[in-house]
Amino acid sequence: MRSLTIPTARPRSPGGDRGFRRSPATTADEILRRAASWLGVPYSQDAAHTNEFGTYRTDCSGFVAMAWGLPPGPRGGPNTVDLAATSVPIAKDDLRAGDVLIDANGDRRTRHATLFVAWADAARTRYWAYEQCGGTGAVHRVLPYPSGGYRPYRHPGARPP
């Protein structure tokens, strides 16, 4: 698997410092290992889960923050809007393990983020993802490539593999 390196730095955010900072260097393998550590953790926008990687909010953005190694800050990780605002938009063809697909539109009931793992088909219409969502909690599964408001993003400190 290719490596994704994420250096220590402060996030850009239109709302200023939201109480979180980027993590030390992390590889794509480490991001996926961290994501797998949450399989079966129930979903909640109001609860937190603690494991060897820290204590994070158990919603989709808290899950991505944990997988990316972002310090949780006082809120258990950035919210979905903050993830999109502090990440780098990329093209669908540039997706690689450790990137995210984010729909930052709407409100806290409709916004969502999934962690991209790999394409599940040659046509790139389905992908393997780690996802923290209502009804299932954290899962690893194949999803249809999203449409609508979903956009692919990369951690701003990511370096080419």
Low-pLDDT runs of 5+ residues are 1-22
- Tell me the β content: 25-35%
Structural class: alpha+beta
Total domain units: 1
Terminal CA distance reads 9 Å
CATH topology assignment: endopeptidase fold (from Nostoc punctiforme)
Rg from alpha-carbon coordinates:
14 Å
Write down how many β-strands occur, each being a DSSP E stretch of 2 or more residues: 8
Given this structure, which CATH class is correct?
A: Alpha Beta
In the CATH hierarchy, what is the superfamily? endopeptidase domain like (from Nostoc punctiforme)
N-to-C SSE string, H for helix and E for strand: HEEHHEEEEEE
- Number of H- or I-type helical stretches: 3
Helix coverage percent: 10-25%
State mean pLDDT (0 to 100 scale). 83
The CATH architecture can be named as Alpha-Beta Complex
Outline, from the CA principal axes? globular
Biggest sheet: strand arrangement: 3-8-4-5-6-7
Largest sheet: 6 strands, antiparallel
